[in-house]
Amino acid sequence: MRKTGLLILLGLFLACQAVSAQQLDAAFGVGTMTSTAAADSNGNQASLNGGAFPAFSADFLFKRRYGISGELAWRASRSVFADIQPYRPLFYDFNGIYAPKLSKHLTAEMMAGIGWESIRLYQPFTTCGFTSCTDFVSSNHFMGHFGGGIRYYVWGNLFVRPEAHVYLIRNNVEFNSGHAVRYGMSIGYTFGGPGF
Asked: In whole angstroms, what is the distance from residue 7 CA to residue 30 CA?
Protein backbone atom coordinates (compact mmCIF):
# COMPACT_ATOMS: atom_id res chain seq x y z
CA MET A 1 0.00 0.00 0.00
CA ARG A 2 2.68 2.51 1.00
CA LYS A 3 4.87 1.53 -1.96
CA THR A 4 1.98 2.05 -4.39
CA GLY A 5 1.22 5.48 -2.92
CA LEU A 6 4.85 6.53 -3.07
CA LEU A 7 5.15 5.30 -6.67
CA ILE A 8 2.08 7.33 -7.65
CA LEU A 9 3.50 10.46 -6.02
CA LEU A 10 6.91 9.90 -7.61
CA GLY A 11 5.33 9.35 -11.03
CA LEU A 12 3.28 12.53 -10.69
CA PHE A 13 6.38 14.45 -9.59
CA LEU A 14 8.40 13.23 -12.59
CA ALA A 15 5.54 14.05 -14.95
CA CYS A 16 5.48 17.54 -13.45
CA GLN A 17 9.17 18.03 -14.21
CA ALA A 18 8.75 16.73 -17.74
CA VAL A 19 5.93 19.07 -18.69
CA SER A 20 7.09 22.09 -16.68
CA ALA A 21 3.97 22.35 -14.56
CA GLN A 22 3.45 25.60 -12.76
CA GLN A 23 2.50 24.07 -9.44
CA LEU A 24 2.72 20.75 -7.58
CA ASP A 25 0.61 20.07 -4.49
CA ALA A 26 1.05 17.01 -2.26
CA ALA A 27 -1.06 16.11 0.78
CA PHE A 28 -1.77 13.43 3.36
CA GLY A 29 -5.05 13.20 5.24
CA VAL A 30 -7.52 11.08 7.15
CA GLY A 31 -11.25 10.77 6.73
CA THR A 32 -14.13 8.34 7.01
CA MET A 33 -16.55 6.65 4.62
CA THR A 34 -20.34 6.65 4.46
CA SER A 35 -22.31 4.14 2.43
CA THR A 36 -25.48 2.10 2.61
CA ALA A 37 -25.21 -1.06 4.72
CA ALA A 38 -25.79 -4.36 2.95
CA ALA A 39 -27.32 -7.52 4.37
CA ASP A 40 -26.50 -10.97 3.04
CA SER A 41 -29.01 -13.86 2.99
CA ASN A 42 -28.30 -14.55 6.69
CA GLY A 43 -28.89 -10.92 7.71
CA ASN A 44 -25.18 -10.23 8.32
CA GLN A 45 -24.16 -6.64 7.62
CA ALA A 46 -21.41 -5.78 5.14
CA SER A 47 -20.70 -2.14 4.40
CA LEU A 48 -18.03 0.30 3.30
CA ASN A 49 -19.43 2.55 6.03
CA GLY A 50 -17.19 3.82 8.84
CA GLY A 51 -13.57 3.38 9.78
CA ALA A 52 -10.58 5.69 9.35
CA PHE A 53 -9.35 6.17 5.76
CA PRO A 54 -5.84 7.62 5.37
CA ALA A 55 -5.18 9.12 1.93
CA PHE A 56 -2.24 10.38 -0.16
CA SER A 57 -2.93 12.86 -2.95
CA ALA A 58 -0.97 14.95 -5.43
CA ASP A 59 -1.82 17.28 -8.27
CA PHE A 60 -0.11 19.29 -10.99
CA LEU A 61 -1.66 22.59 -12.01
CA PHE A 62 -0.88 24.07 -15.39
CA LYS A 63 -1.86 27.45 -16.79
CA ARG A 64 -5.29 28.80 -15.87
CA ARG A 65 -5.38 26.58 -12.74
CA TYR A 66 -6.31 23.37 -14.61
CA GLY A 67 -4.35 20.17 -14.10
CA ILE A 68 -4.26 16.48 -13.23
CA SER A 69 -4.46 14.75 -9.86
CA GLY A 70 -4.15 11.30 -8.34
CA GLU A 71 -5.15 9.84 -5.00
CA LEU A 72 -4.91 6.64 -2.97
CA ALA A 73 -7.21 6.06 0.04
CA TRP A 74 -7.57 2.87 2.10
CA ARG A 75 -9.24 1.67 5.26
CA ALA A 76 -6.67 1.80 8.08
CA SER A 77 -7.99 -1.30 9.86
CA ARG A 78 -9.63 -4.42 8.55
CA SER A 79 -13.38 -4.79 8.73
CA VAL A 80 -15.27 -8.10 8.77
CA PHE A 81 -17.43 -9.11 5.82
CA ALA A 82 -20.55 -11.11 6.81
CA ASP A 83 -19.06 -11.67 10.30
CA ILE A 84 -16.58 -14.14 8.75
CA GLN A 85 -14.19 -12.66 6.20
CA PRO A 86 -11.72 -9.87 7.10
CA TYR A 87 -11.40 -7.29 4.31
CA ARG A 88 -9.94 -3.87 3.54
CA PRO A 89 -11.07 -1.58 0.68
CA LEU A 90 -8.63 0.61 -1.28
CA PHE A 91 -9.61 3.42 -3.67
CA TYR A 92 -7.32 4.66 -6.47
CA ASP A 93 -8.36 7.53 -8.72
CA PHE A 94 -6.93 9.78 -11.45
CA ASN A 95 -8.66 13.06 -12.23
CA GLY A 96 -8.80 16.30 -14.11
CA ILE A 97 -8.74 19.15 -11.59
CA TYR A 98 -9.65 22.83 -11.55
CA ALA A 99 -8.30 24.85 -8.60
CA PRO A 100 -9.35 28.51 -8.76
CA LYS A 101 -7.78 30.91 -6.28
CA LEU A 102 -10.54 32.47 -4.15
CA SER A 103 -8.42 34.83 -2.06
CA LYS A 104 -4.85 35.24 -0.85
CA HIS A 105 -5.18 32.24 1.50
CA LEU A 106 -8.04 30.20 -0.06
CA THR A 107 -8.08 27.94 -3.12
CA ALA A 108 -11.00 25.73 -4.19
CA GLU A 109 -10.53 22.27 -5.71
CA MET A 110 -13.00 20.55 -8.04
CA MET A 111 -12.12 17.25 -9.67
CA ALA A 112 -13.63 14.42 -11.69
CA GLY A 113 -12.09 11.24 -13.02
CA ILE A 114 -11.90 7.49 -12.99
CA GLY A 115 -10.26 4.81 -10.89
CA TRP A 116 -10.90 1.53 -9.20
CA GLU A 117 -11.90 0.03 -5.90
CA SER A 118 -9.81 -2.92 -4.74
CA ILE A 119 -11.32 -5.01 -1.95
CA ARG A 120 -8.70 -7.19 -0.27
CA LEU A 121 -10.26 -10.31 1.24
CA TYR A 122 -7.85 -11.75 3.80
CA GLN A 123 -7.28 -15.52 4.04
CA PRO A 124 -6.08 -17.59 7.03
CA PHE A 125 -3.13 -18.82 4.91
CA THR A 126 -0.39 -17.39 2.70
CA THR A 127 -0.11 -18.01 -1.04
CA CYS A 128 3.25 -17.52 -2.76
CA GLY A 129 3.73 -16.68 -6.42
CA PHE A 130 6.75 -16.00 -8.61
CA THR A 131 7.65 -12.65 -7.02
CA SER A 132 5.86 -12.42 -3.65
CA CYS A 133 3.64 -13.99 -1.02
CA THR A 134 0.24 -12.66 0.05
CA ASP A 135 -2.46 -13.52 2.56
CA PHE A 136 -5.33 -11.95 0.55
CA VAL A 137 -7.19 -12.08 -2.75
CA SER A 138 -8.47 -8.93 -4.44
CA SER A 139 -11.82 -8.09 -5.98
CA ASN A 140 -11.43 -5.04 -8.25
CA HIS A 141 -14.14 -2.73 -9.59
CA PHE A 142 -14.00 0.20 -12.03
CA MET A 143 -15.39 3.46 -10.61
CA GLY A 144 -16.10 7.08 -11.36
CA HIS A 145 -14.90 9.74 -8.93
CA PHE A 146 -16.02 13.30 -8.11
CA GLY A 147 -14.39 15.34 -5.38
CA GLY A 148 -13.74 18.76 -4.00
CA GLY A 149 -12.19 20.69 -1.18
CA ILE A 150 -11.03 24.08 0.04
CA ARG A 151 -7.34 24.71 0.69
CA TYR A 152 -6.57 27.19 3.43
CA TYR A 153 -2.93 28.29 3.45
CA VAL A 154 -2.06 28.54 7.13
CA TRP A 155 1.64 29.41 6.78
CA GLY A 156 3.49 30.09 3.54
CA ASN A 157 2.76 27.19 1.18
CA LEU A 158 1.49 24.86 3.94
CA PHE A 159 -2.25 24.23 3.70
CA VAL A 160 -5.09 22.35 5.38
CA ARG A 161 -7.94 21.06 3.23
CA PRO A 162 -11.42 19.89 4.26
CA GLU A 163 -12.61 17.64 1.44
CA ALA A 164 -15.31 15.27 0.18
CA HIS A 165 -15.20 12.53 -2.47
CA VAL A 166 -18.00 10.59 -4.16
CA TYR A 167 -17.26 7.13 -5.60
CA LEU A 168 -19.62 5.56 -8.17
CA ILE A 169 -18.54 1.89 -8.19
CA ARG A 170 -19.48 -0.41 -11.05
CA ASN A 171 -20.58 -3.99 -10.21
CA ASN A 172 -19.84 -3.59 -6.51
CA VAL A 173 -21.35 -7.05 -5.89
CA GLU A 174 -19.86 -7.46 -2.41
CA PHE A 175 -22.16 -4.67 -1.17
CA ASN A 176 -25.66 -3.57 -2.10
CA SER A 177 -24.58 0.00 -2.80
CA GLY A 178 -22.68 1.15 -5.86
CA HIS A 179 -21.73 4.46 -4.30
CA ALA A 180 -19.81 5.68 -1.28
CA VAL A 181 -18.80 9.10 0.08
CA ARG A 182 -15.48 9.79 1.80
CA TYR A 183 -14.92 13.03 3.66
CA GLY A 184 -12.06 14.21 5.82
CA MET A 185 -9.18 16.64 6.29
CA SER A 186 -5.72 16.76 4.70
CA ILE A 187 -2.56 18.71 5.33
CA GLY A 188 -0.32 19.49 2.40
CA TYR A 189 2.28 21.67 0.77
CA THR A 190 2.44 23.61 -2.51
CA PHE A 191 5.70 23.46 -4.48
CA GLY A 192 6.15 26.27 -6.99
CA GLY A 193 3.24 28.26 -8.29
CA PRO A 194 2.27 31.77 -7.24
CA GLY A 195 3.26 33.00 -3.80
CA PHE A 196 0.56 32.92 -1.13
From this structure: 20
